[in-house]
Amino acid sequence: MTASPAVTPIAIRDEDLAQVRYDANGLVPAIVQEEGTGEVLMMAWCNETTLRRTLEEGRTVFWSRSRQEEWRKGDTSGDRQFLRAAYYDCDGDTLLFVVEQEGAGACHTGEKTCFFRAFGG
User: What is the CATH number of domain 14-101?
Assistant: First the structure.
């Protein structure tokens, strides 16, 4: 059995959190990118609480708009994401999580990435 990747919490600095701009629903999009390959795995939503939990726990935690509840990636599927770096963009309105992906992949369909369909192809 392979050991799970290490959990790597990221320091929370108030000055960084103050730069994040949430929408009218208190949410900010988070793009998840695979460490090493640079492949974009998925996009999900964070609120202030799930952003803090992601940084504190070193695993991605998101807000489900449809279920109106928090969810930690992989708790049900086993396809967990271990945080390696976290960024916010120049406007503070988009997050980027660089992760080590465990399991089959990030997409709930069983695909490695949620971006497996191309226009015109």
Answer: 3.10.20.810
Averaged over successive runs of 10 residues, the pLDDT of the chain (121 residues) comes to: 80 95 98 97 98 97 96 94 97 98 93 95 71
Rounded Cα gap, residues 6 and 43, in angstroms: 23
At 63, is the secondary structure helix, strand, or coil? Answer: strand
Q: How far is CA 109 from CA 1, 16, 34, 78, 93, in A?
A: 25, 34, 18, 13, 27
Strand boundaries in the chain, DSSP class E: 28-34, 40-46, 61-64, 69-72, 81-88, 95-101
Give the residue extent of every domain in the chain: 14-101
Say which residues have a Cβ less than 8 Å from residue 20's Cβ, sequence separation at least 6.
28, 48, 51, 88, 92, 93, 95
Helices and strands, number each (H, E), in the chain: 2, 6
pTM: 0.93
